[in-house]
Amino acid sequence: MHEGLTWREVVDKYQSTMVDELGAAVDSLIAAEREAESIRAAAERERVKLATAESLNQIVRRIRQSATESAVLELLAEATSPYAGRAVVLSIENNQEGKSEARAAARRGVSEGDLTLEPSAAAAVAAVIETKDPVVALASESELSPAIAEAMGGAETKVYLFPLTTRQDVVAILVAAETVAPATLELLCGAAGLKMETLAPQIPVLKALPAPGLIQIEAPAIPATASVPEHRSWKDLSADDQKLHLQAQRVARVKVAEMRLYQAEQLRSGVASGNIYDALHTEIDNARTAFLQAFLSKSPTMVDYLHLELLRSLAHDDDRLLGENYPGPMV
């Protein structure tokens, strides 16, 4: 027995020491468990992040491999599955009267039915087309359309609208609702828009005849058989002419977009020097020749959409930036 202590005091002291040691052991176990839980949570977050990245990578790869615009839009609707409960992809087109029209090209989680609308009559759709930015709205008839509002869940449902743009034009809109992941959907729409820009109809590329020495590149001339374009309104054009005009517009946009993408350094130099044509004369001459053969020579009503796109997208509507040597419009 400890000197000066009674048996009860010794027992109490021993028990107190045991309680302190046990408390320290419990605290150590709790801390270790929390640390292990934190490690497991971090590992799970990393696993989810890697799985999401791989999933997005697979989706973008499939979009890049799509052969048609309709395939791109259908794949986009399918790809929204983990990131939205409902989705409708609206394709923006011009009808036979020349008016803009939005129709459902693909859908997921939405019942079948006619989902066609006039963009100017739907405030949210019109805002996306005008600003080319995502828009958040309620699924009301005034923001969308009666049919689409009902399909997306009604006026109390928040909807997100994401544009698919090919340079300066909105060609489609993704409408999503229910547990939406906006950042991911905006990324997918960007990838889909880039792919659609490359899916324009191919036009023939003329090969230059071999020459023994240097040759002088001249502006393509309009064939003698081609008459001066007739100035007609859109409604006066035949269905075939309207189709050819729309195709010409899209080809012009893609050709100029390729110049901006693949000759970016030359373009910057041309803009800085006020002589875009000299900086890109080979690409511009090739595009002019191909556009002349594919479109200007095919219809007396055709417009030089390539010139208009060069002026708008490369020179920012300042024809002085094209340079003194630029041949000008072909018609």
The CATH homologous superfamily of the largest domain: GAF domain
What's the CATH first level of the largest domain?
A: Alpha Beta
CATH topology of the largest domain: Beta-Lactamase
Residue-averaged pLDDT, rounded? 80
Number of strands: 6
The Rg value, from CA coordinates, equals: 32 Å
The number of distinct structural domains comes to: 3
Give the strand order, joined by hyphens, for the main sheet.
Answer: 3-2-1-6-5-4
What share of the residues lie within helices? 40-55%
Q: What characterizes the major β-sheet? A: 6 strands, antiparallel
Shape: elongated
Strand content: 5-15%
Distance from first to last alpha carbon: 117 Å
Q: If classified by CATH, what would the architecture of the largest domain be?
A: 2-Layer Sandwich
Written as H for each helix and E for each strand, in order along the chain, the element string is: HHEEEHEHEEHHHHHH
